[in-house]
Amino acid sequence: MMRPPASLFSLLGILLLVLGSGCSSTQSAKGVISGDYGRPATWLRSAEAREKKGDLQGALYNLKVARTVSRRDSKINAAIKRVEAKINRQSEKMMRQGKQAVSQGRLTKARRYYLKALSLNPKHKSALEAMRELDKRASKAAMKKKVARSNSNYNNRTKKKKLAKGFHEEAYIYSRQEILQAEGRQANLGEYLKEIETHLKKFPKDREVRDLLSKILLDQAGAAFDAENYKDALDYLQRAERVFTSDADRLDKIQQQRKAYGRALYLKGVRSSRNEPEHAIKYWEYALKFDPDDKKSRLRLRNFQSM
Q1: CB atoms within 10 A of CB 213
Q2: Among candidates 260, 99, 30, which has minimal Cα distance to 114?
Q3: Architecture of domain 31-123
């Protein structure tokens, strides 16, 4: 068996020396100065320097590296807890200042505070949610400005020249876009419904928005009925009838829902008539409000009143 030449061993030795010297002088990504990276003191010195500069995330990173080198060092663990607590205090302070800025209407300033909180703690859930809310508000405000500008331009053009159809005007596009984007996320349902109805007065041919309004009103009526809030359920159905007074198909659907609620209330009244007659009367009275042609509820009420 042939032995490797001696020159090969010499070459390997030189290579190891070069690699060893290179490892001791390379800087880390977090700014650790050259030194023995196997010693916790190297990382602790770097963490201290980072903290003095205000780079708490960099300090925390170096402290956690130090802990991987010496897991049982109580000083390292105490330093990690101290820096984490400092990050939490400062980030919460930024959050409070951000919320105060929002309450004052200074949204740009609020955004800066939230970004500072995120620079301290990139996983800060409240700061991320606050940024999303600011983005929504900014988007809605920008959309309202576009709608107002478009409506103004549209009105100016119609004064000069009466248009037969404004269906594809900018005002229509922006208005319906704002409505459809807000579906399911509106904070005030009453204002949202008024916004939809105003849009439909201007653009009555917008079938998609008409479908949306019909769905909201009937769904709200159903939710109110299930909660036994019969007055609100009736109000939503009556509102739908007023909006779709010239739409025979939708009126028929509303009438069917009215009759279904009337039948349900009639049965509730029958079940309550023996033990809770006062409830039975209330159910039959509401049944007649939903369906004035309900002969069974009318007969039951007449019999109770004649007793």
Answers
A1: 23
A2: 99
A3: Alpha Horseshoe (1.25)
